[in-house]
Amino acid sequence: MEFLCYHRDRPGSLALREELLEDHWSYMDQYQARMIARGPTFGADGETPTGSLHIVDLPDPAAARAFAFEEPGHQAGVYRDVLLRRWRNLLGRTMWEFSGGLTGGDRYLVLGFGSGEAADLAVPAEKDEVIAYGPLLSDDGATWLGTAAVVRAPGPEAARAVLTQDRYAGIEVHDWECGGRR
User: Fold this and answer.
1) How far is CA 92 from CA 64, 130, 151, in A?
2) Average pLDDT, stretch 150-155?
3) CA-based R_g, the chain, Å
4) What is the DSSP string of 138-149?
5) On the CB side of 14, how many CA atoms lie within 13 Å of its CA?
6) How far apart are CA 79 and CA 77, in angstroms?
7) Tens of pLDDT along 14-71?
């Protein structure tokens, strides 16, 4: 089962985040073989971290909750909240298999929150610029709750356009970069 986990930073937690960076990486190293995508998001200045995205294949929702809530930064109070949802990898690959490589170009995490009839269940036509893509689902995988995409795009509005605008209660676009040890 695939899960999207997005830890959102608590305001004023940057020093603590930096102090725990090695602990965070060491924790995530345990899951490297199961990772589909990972990396930090950034604020408007392009430098200040605002969150940490991990898309990972885990056995069940209980394992996903353990993954999210046992993370050292979460335990220490770095994060304000955690978005944890089942996810389906419609591309069938990891970010390391993205033909555009791990660097270069502007990259974004796009989260569309919806309810009712599912939308955007097909990979966008411009899939050469899509790093990760799939629906956000309930724990049992039966209910569509939105769509998440990681894309390379010329700007945030182009990234937002990967989702059908009028089908979501809200769409968030976050500056993102590939993460992990380099």
Assistant:
1) 19, 12, 15
2) 97
3) 15
4) -TTS-SEEEEEE
5) 9
6) 5
7) 999 999 999 999 999 999 999 999 999 999 999 999 999 999 999 999 999 999 999 9
Percentage of the chain beyond pLDDT 70 is 99
Q: Residue 76: its pLDDT value, please? A: 97
Half-sphere exposure of 132 (CA within 13 A, CB side): 32
Tell me which residue has tokens 């408007």. 44
How far apart, in whole angstroms, are the C-alpha atoms of residue 177 and residue 41?
7
Q: How many CB atoms lie under 10 A from the CB of residue 165?
A: 10
What six digits make up the tokens of 173?
């676009």
Distance of CA 154 to the CA centre of its chain: 19
Identify whether the C-beta of residue 45 lies closer than 8 Å to the C-beta of residue 112.
no
Instruction: Phi first, then psi: give them for residue 181, nearest 5 degrees.
Output: -70, 145
Q: What is the pTM of this model?
A: 0.95
| The two three-digit tokens of residue 106, written as one number | 């502007």
Q: Positive or negative CA dihedral for 15, 16, 17, 18?
A: positive
CA distance 169 to 157: 17
Angle formed at CA 71 by CA 67 and CA 74, multiple of 5 degrees: 120
The burial of 72, by beta-carbon neighbours within 10 Å (0-12 exposed, 13-18 middle, 19 or more buried), is given as: middle
pLDDT of residue 116: 84
